[in-house]
Design brief:
With 565 residues, the protein is α+β, with helices and mostly antiparallel strands. The protein has five domains: 7-68; 85-181, no CATH class; 185-329, no CATH class; 340-484; 496-563. The protein is built from 29 helices and six strands. The chain has helices at residues 28-39, 92-96, 98-107, 109-115, 119-123, 126-133, 138-154, 158-180, 192-202, 208-221, 226-236, 243-256, 260-267, 273-284, 296-307, 312-327, 341-349, 359-372, 380-390, 395-405, 415-425, 433-436, 442-458, 463-483, 486-490, 497-508, 517-530, 535-539, 546-562, and strands at residues 8-15, 18-25, 45-53, 59-68, 350-351, 354-355. The strands form two sheets. A four-stranded antiparallel sheet has the order 2-1-3-4. Strands 5-6 form a two-stranded antiparallel sheet. Strand 1 (8-15) and strand 2 (18-25) form a beta hairpin. Helix 14 (273-284) runs parallel beside helix 17 (341-349). It is elongated and about 105 Å long.
Length: 565
Amino acid sequence: MPVTTAYTYEVRVKRGDRWIIHATYDVEKEAQIEAESVLRGKVSAVRIVRDWEREDGRHIEKVLLEKEGQGDGGDEPVRVTPIEDAALCETDEDLLGVESRSTINRLLRKYFEQEVLTPTEVMYNYKNLRKLMYHDTLLPSAVDRVATIHSRTTEGNHIEAASKLHRAIDTLAARARQVEKYDLPQFEDATIAEVRREIRQLRLAEDTDFLTMVALTRHLSSSRSWIGKLDFALKVKGDPKDNRARAMVDDVVADILGSPVALKDLLGPSRNFGEAVLLHIDLALGKARGNRGAAQDVLDLLNPLFAAGLMPKAQFVLFDYIARELKSPNSLSRSEEDANPLVEILDRLLNADGVVFGQPMVEALVERGARVRNVGGSRAFGEGVDEIATNLAPGWRRLAFLADVTKCERAGEIEGELAELTRKTVADMRGLRAFCGMQAKPREKMAMVTRMHENVSRSNFVEDLKHHLSERLDNGLADYLIREKVIERIDNPDLHLRQRAYMLVKFCSSGVLIEGKSATMARKRVVGYLRQPNFTDHLVDDLQDSGEKEGTLRDFYALLQRSGF
């Protein structure tokens, strides 16, 4: 087993009565240079401590240097950021999960931004984790805050919740400390897959993926630049088909993009809060074009990964961050004369499947709507829904949003208002212009009405309203087929019967018709053909070869079967 017996040199700074780890080095000379540099600032005292771990796991420390400084500069100590929700976790594996890391990132945001580190770099790197554990009362304060949230949400015991968190941290620290002494492969011109392969050949006791993350975070921690970390991670993943390598990069990117400072470095500064939110949404959707000063080369690497849905954890973190931004009290624009960013935000966050990121984003949008109207208390939810619905056009977008609203816990509070809003949405179905938009093409209109019919069936609208909506959508589509003579255009008498029959059957199974009046109209035309005398003879009467006739008939009846006839 490759083991490197070495000293670690910690530069510690005195704050009040406590010594806090300022930096860690493998070389004593580097620690001395940093200590002298720190002493030039306003600090009470500086120490260099040599740390050595014995074979039995005990740490032996020796103070090599201690000097008094010019006095405490009175810098504001780093504290935990107040949070109101936290992922439940009881084990070290829970701590390593994306939701837990996202919570930790928010809770210790000031610390991570000061150190230019991510939760991943701390959890897999014992030097970084030890530094956090010795950083004043930061970690105990964080545990206490999360334990309070856990005990409140689970109706459990605060002390028990805190004990579970401390045990999970201690277990993770023990794992990180155990592998710290391993001489792992470097990432010099190597991909994650190649490093994993080398680690597997070492046959060490710890899990290969855990060790690979240790090796990866050792390199990442050496960079003091968010963009440098991103660029490195995206370039070492290697083969795009290597799912495990991409998952590791996904973890790293998710943590980096959880930092507002990293997002600003990546996308460039924004003119206002609304523009920043739009940039973050575009990034999550894989369509980001940064402002002046953006790291466009890194964006060009990220965009295709996000667009293809290949980085689900990073997308989760981004959309979670966007939802929190929308819930914040920050104004989207600086003055009333500016264009309303909310309309553009809704354009990006709502599609035919509903609101992107589901219920957390629906609730965030409703809260933002209530803020726009400056309404709180019991009226906030209803006013928020009305404000968002007012900014949505054409009708299908309002219906998609309102269908998602029915799944909110508070939807029952506004059942009457919700029903009135929804009925108005399908009140005008003439030509499907108001519902689908003036610019929509015929096939797009039919497909959209059918999609919305499916959305309504999956919604939590009360049954009477659901029946009314389904009926309005089906009647509107059927009227459109008649008004626009859609079936007549498909069933062109100038074409051969076989072409007309094929096109009609495919139209029936194309997914643009509702199983109701509209589908019945199209199927009726097909059934009319099938009942014609000598239909099969007419279907192939222009073909000469008997084998071709048999094959054509066989294909047609197979198509009928697949189409439900």
